[in-house]
Amino acid sequence: MNVRVTYYLEVVSSWCHWVEPVWADLQKRYAGQVEFGWKLALMDDSGIPASREQCDWFYRRSGMIMRSPYMLNSGWFDPALRQYLAPNLVAEAARDFGVNDDRVRLAIANAAVRQGLRVGQWEIAAEVGAAAAGLDARQLLERAQSPEVAARGKAATEEFHSLKISQRPAFVLDDAIGDRAVFSGLVSIKPLEATLDAMLSDVAAYAAHKAHFGTPPPV
User: Fold this and answer.
1) Which of the four pLDDT bands, split at 50, 70 and 90, describes residue 198?
2) What CA dihedral angle connects 99, 100, 106 and 108, to 10 degrees?
3) Which pLDDT tens digit goes with each residue over 129-157?
4) 144 vs 1: CA distance, rounded Å
5) In a domain, 218, yes or no
6) Based on C-alpha coordinates, what's the Rg of the chain?
7) I need a surface site. Which of 42, 58, 147, 182 has the fewest CB within 10 A?
8) How many domains does the chain fold into?
9) How high is the pLDDT of residue 219?
10) 14 falls within a domain
11) CA distance linking residue 200 with residue 197, whole number of Å
12) Is 219 contained in some domain?
């Protein structure tokens, strides 16, 4: 593909939940033209609500902004956890069983923010993820707790921070001619769509020029 979109996310993030319809729509609209993939951007203590009451306050705010007909469920919140490794690393581990799409992470995210399940617990996250993809829960859990999967989650998160952004969802758009666009915290399809259209047009223009003139002459 000449254009690639990388979506940086935290599985239990409410704003990532709200942007999922946009992500799905982009993949349908640009199927065969753009390569899509997601990476973890784990939230640390600074990004986790301090209490369930605070979480509900944030949910009321984002739900109103998104004009949502439903309110998110804060039942997943566990005051003993200041980072939610289980839901994220279970989703990451599913890749090692050939599940490279969105099924596992979406199932875990919905179990958390819609059903209020305590997906911060490894066994619950693994059961939900395994059911979504027809995997063995014990094998998925074992892989999710492996050093290799933890290292991938850490590396992806460091990559996210190297972009000098802090908000999730984040989207990085790259094309074959070296252009890059970074969106952090936006949940509207319009800026992403406009940028993808511009990138695809530019890549096509470069290809047409090369067909007519070839490679640049040597210096």
Assistant:
1) very high
2) 50
3) 999 999 999 999 999 999 999 999 999 99
4) 30
5) no
6) 19
7) 147
8) 1
9) 85
10) yes
11) 5
12) no
Distances (CA, A) of 131 to 34, 80, 105, 138, 143: 29, 26, 12, 11, 16
Backbone angles phi, psi at 19, to 5 degrees: -90, -10
CA distance 13 to 20: 11
Segment 32-90, tens digit of pLDDT: 999 999 999 999 999 999 999 999 999 999 999 999 999 999 999 999 999 999 999 99
Residue 67 belongs to what domain range?
Answer: 3-213
Q: Which residue bears the tokens 């109103």?
A: 64
> 54 lies in a domain?
yes
The pTM of the whole model exceeds 0.85:
yes
